[in-house]
Structure formats: C-alpha cells, structure tokens
C-alpha cells in the first residue's frame, strides 16, 4: 500500500504549505507525501492485524474439523511425525490445521474384473476372466498407505491375479477346466486369498466369469464331437442290423418248424389239408363281406372248393348212375 501511495503522489505537483496541510507535512515549502504515508501506515497497523486474526480464525475453523463418511476409515498424516497408527471411523473428528491432514480409505468391497491369457497342461491357450471383490485390511491402513497408497488395488491385483491364474491353470487339461470348473475356481480363490494377505488386502469372493479357448481348439473339439456322434449312430445301425438278422433267423426257424409240423400232420391225417382250406375260405369270405367292391368268382378262385378230386369223381359217378336209372 505504501508503494502505491508513493507512485500516485509522485505524479502530483508540489503544493505550498500555506494552501494545504500544516508545516509537518511540508518539505522546503512543498507537500511531503512520505510523512503522510508514514502516518497512514501507523494508523492502518491495527486494521491489518485484525484482518489477519479474522482470516487465521476462519482458516482454522474450516480446516480443524473433517468428516468421515459411512464405509470409510481415516488416518492422519502429521508434518512432523508422518502417518499415525490410529484410525478414525465414521463421524466428525478434529485435526491441527496445516500440521495434519486426513487420509480417507474406502473400506467397502469393490469389484475388479481381470482377464489373463495362459496355457493349460496340454499346451492349449486359455482366455480366462476372473471377478474378485476386495477391500483393505482395516487394521493395517497406515502400512498400506506407506507402501502402496490409496490406489493399492490397482497396483497389486493385476500382478497377483495373473500369477495365480497361470500357476493354477497349468495344472489342468483343457477338458478338465470345463468339466471341473468349480474345483478350479476354489483352487484359484484359495491361492489368491493367501497371496493378497501379503499386501493386507482381503478378498470376499473370487469367481470365474468367462472361459474360452483358441479358435483352432474349439474347431477340433467340435469335429471330435461330430465324429463321436457319427460313431454312435453307426454303432446303433450295426446293433439294429444285428437285431433284424436275429429276428429273420428266428422267423425262418419258426417257419421251418411250422412246415415240419404241418408235414407231419398231413402224413398222419390227410384231412388236415381240408381243415386248412376251410380256415382260409372263412378268412376270404369275411374280407369280401366287409368290402364295398363286390365281385362274382367261382369257388376255385376263392379257394372255397372244399370238395377233393376223389370226392368229385365219386359224385360224378353217382350222378351218372342215377341218370341211367
């Protein structure tokens, strides 16, 4: 302020002492701005001091209190002693302005999804995605801040997840990764939880969200499945043919046995043929009675000629003898 007044008054003309201020503000009969500025500075000192006190009080009031939200925990950093070992939970807390500042950690579980390309036991490339819920160990927040900082999860999880995935997946074949997926997931969770404890990180859940193989391997698996289905179909056709063969043999054996039985019956009783004729004639007559198309046929065409050759000759001889009488 004094410098500004000096610059302003340097452009003003000197005024005689008789027309302006008392003699104490004049120098050699002219106006002396230096003495005026000295007096103004002396009278403004209390005002400046009061403003400084008010400003300091406002700064202290606004920076002395801080709030920790729900799901967060804070630690203090002191300019003299560094990070303290005491943690502060939800609520309002005090601190020394400028000397201390609050470092707030989010201690709620947060999801992280990571993908890794690794090889299986049978040298197949596997693209596996893992989802983990992690949070910091609330008893070791000062150590986490000293060694890793607030972004501890971004620094630690990608490296240890890749390490654990590669070590676990290499113990299983590609087919086992699909069939024994639950066992693989439990193994990964166990190893990853133990590895994260070295960095004071807690894992609430670890799950495999995606598992895929190379396009060449997928085509090979598909071709194998098609070949297996074709083999199963061929095996079914073979079994069907064998059953048909057995059926034909059994049917032929039955017909042969039936023919033997019929031949034996004819030899023992010639009237068996007549019984067969009568049975067939009854079946034909039954079919014709139910048919809408009617035809007039003789008994020989209908297999209904039940009179044998011998009987027919006898009947003709008897008829001729009766005609002679």
Taking pLDDT < 50 over at least 5 consecutive residues as the criterion, the unreliable ranges are 1-28
Mean pLDDT: 80
Q: What string gives the helices and strands in order?
A: HEEHEEEEEEEHHHHEHHH
Task: Provide the β-strand percentage band.
Answer: 15-25%
Gyration radius over CA: 57 Å
Characterization of this structure:
It is a single chain. The protein is built from nine helices and ten strands. With 325 residues, it is α+β, with helices and mostly antiparallel strands. The strands form four sheets. The chain has a three-stranded antiparallel beta sheet with strand order 5-4-7, covered by helices on one side. Strands 8-9-10 form a three-stranded antiparallel beta sheet. Strand 8 and strand 9 form a beta hairpin. The longest helix has 54 residues.
How is this structure best summarized?
With 325 residues, the chain is an alpha+beta fold. The protein is 54% helix and 21% strand.
Characteristic terms for this protein:
325 residues, alpha+beta, three-stranded antiparallel β-sheet, 21% strand
Outline the secondary-structure elements.
Blueprint: H1 2-9, E1 26-27, E2 30-31, H2 33-63, E3 65-68, E4 72-78, E5 82-88, E6 91-94, E7 100-106, E8 110-119, E9 125-136, H3 141-147, H4 152-169, H5 174-179, H6 181-197, E10 201-213, H7 215-268, H8 271-290, H9 309-324
Antiparallel strand pairs: 1-2, 3-6, 4-5, 4-7, 8-9, 9-10
Helix pairs in contact: 1-2, 4-6
